[in-house]
Design brief:
Structural class of chain B: mainly beta
Order of helices and strands of chain B: EEHEEEEEE
Oligomer: heterodimer
Number of strands of chain B: 8
Order of helices and strands of chain A: EEHEEEEEEEEHEHEHEEEEEEHEEEHHH
Radius of gyration of chain A: 21 Å
Distance between the termini of chain B: 49 Å
Number of helices of chain A: 8
Largest sheet of chain A: 5 strands, parallel
Strand content of chain A: 25-35%
Helix content of chain B: under 10%
Shape of chain B: globular
Number of strands of chain A: 21
Chain lengths: 348, 110
């Protein structure tokens, strides 16, 4: 079977949903493809409600959402393959917006493959979506906002958090989250890392040690912590395979999470038919993903149908809001990353 | 109080969340009868029943559980109803499923 659409959106998280909505509202024929059974990406496992009114307008004309379906490849610039649970289909498109999100990072330590060592997202899925505790005693690795927030969610679910490890000398996430957890009696070990997990068939214990500012192990500082789950909240990497299949130029920018497709302020990649938004364009958070998605949706529409006043307005508003969100000290890293991206474009 | 039989991993009361569960279904794991809720991932039902090892690796025979729980990392592949390499972290549980630990590479029998 084969399908035809004007805009193909790969990924139905906050970025893809927003891109698809904007493009369809402007009048494009949009096919939104997501491999999960429900749209919403990783937002569905958060404990707070994120989507306001826009998600409820999803039944808009011209937008066809396909769930349980994955975009598995691009063949040339205008054709892709999608895999439903039953069959493989071809999709012909004019523009693609790729919002594939990110994958969880792992960490190197002995026995890091033992069952019970789970990614932070996995812990949230299990606990907040399916109502199952990941363990009884959890060791959290990483004190960024994800590590801190999940620690709090674990406590809400009745799980003991035996400690939070942070390799850097200071806590990574917002102090408001960290203070809340410290008040609940959870120790945060800054300047510490995990050396080894112990257990035969699943995690039973972890060995921890102090490290110096060059991340070198300080001898004779090792100690053991009993735990049946180790949660790794050590960052995410953009999911980029699809971009590489359509010859998008890739750049390595650590501040954005690693390898990302080169793209400009219009979220257009080096392949003019392909746009990007969300974590796939650089690890950030849901609000910026939504705004990036709106820009990508509007610009993808304009690149088929020509300049449009309403699209320009959507882009200007989103760019303005992004600038505001990334201002200040907390947006510093992202600003560095974005600046590097612009420099790379200038060099092309 | 937490019970020691594995079912204590299910959250009965939560301060802000409520969980929509499907009907209770029976399935087997390596021949053992287990219960879970229809529609939840197979790996989640096993975890709630205290089973964390889902397969053993081909070369070093190391125990593996799930890692990402969103169908990306392939750590959770098991044999389900005779099919090998099933990603159990995203495959919904159904009544009567026969779930087996996968040892080594999944081999498709002709």
């Amino acid at each position: 079977m084969s399908r035809k659409t004007e805009i193909l959106v790969a990924g139905g998280g906050p970025a893809g949903l927003s891109a698809a909505l904007v493009a369809a509202q402007l009048g494009a024929k949009v096919l939104l493809v997501d491999d999960n059974p429900v749209l919403g990406g990783q937002l569905i496992k958060q404990t707070h409600r994120f989507f306001g009114s826009s998600a409820r307008e999803a039944g808009i004309r011209g937008l066809i959402p396909l769930v349980n379906t994955a975009v598995v490849g691009f063949y040339g610039d205008t054709q892709s393959g999608i895999l439903t649970r039953e069959s493989f289909e071809e999709v012909k498109f004019e523009r693609a917006i790729v919002c594939t999100g990110a994958t969880e990072n792992s960490l190197n330590f002995e026995n890091n493959d033992l069952p019970g060592i789970y990614g932070a997202g996995a812990v949230q899925t299990l606990m907040n979506l399916h109502g199952i505790r990941p363990g009884k005693k959890v060791l959290m690795v990483g004190s960024g906002n994800i590590g801190l927030i999940i620690s709090y969610q674990l406590i809400q679910a009745g799980v003991q958090v035996v400690g939070i490890l942070e390799a850097l000398p200071t806590i990574g996430g917002y102090l408001v989250h960290a203070s809340k957890i410290r008040r609940l009696g959870v120790p945060i070990f800054t300047g510490h890392t995990i050396l080894q997990a112990h257990g035969t068939n699943y995690v039973e214990k972890a060995t921890i040690c102090k490290i110096d500012e060059k991340f070198q192990r300080i001898p004779n500082t090792e100690f053991d912590v009993e735990c049946d789950c180790i949660c790794l909240a050590v960052g995410l990497s953009p999911q980029i395979e699809l971009f590489q299949q359509v010859n998008c130029k890739m750049v390595f920018i650590p501040e954005l999470g690693g390898l990302v497709p080169l793209h400009d302020g219009n979220m257009q990649t080096s392949n003019p038919r392909v746009f990007v938004a969300g974590d796939a364009s650089g690890i950030e958070e849901a609000t910026t993903a939504i705004l990036g998605g709106r820009i990508a949706g509007a610009r993808a529409y304009e690149s088929i149908f020509g300049k449009n006043e309403k699209a320009a307005e959507i882009v200007a508003d989103a760019q303005d809001e992004l600038k505001h969100l990334r201002a200040g000290i907390l947006g510093e890293r992202i600003r560095w990353g974005r600046d590097r991206l612009l420099k790379e474009i200038a060099e092309c | 109080m937490l019970r020691r039989d594995g079912m204590d991993l299910r959250i009965d009361e939560h301060p802000i969340l409520s969980f929509k569960k499907g009907r209770k279904v029976n399935f087997t794991f390596d021949g053992k009868k287990l219960e879970g809720y229809e529609g939840e991932p197979i790996a989640a039902a096993l975890h709630a029943a205290g089973i964390k090892t889902l397969r053993y690796t081909p070369q070093k025979n190391r125990a593996r559980g799930f890692f990402c729980a969103i169908g990306r990392c392939s750590s959770c592949m098991m044999k389900v109803n005779g099919d090998v390499n099933v990603m159990t972290c995203i495959t919904p549980l159904k009544e009567g499923m026969i779930v087996e630990r996968q040892k080594g590479h999944g081999v498709i029998e002709p």
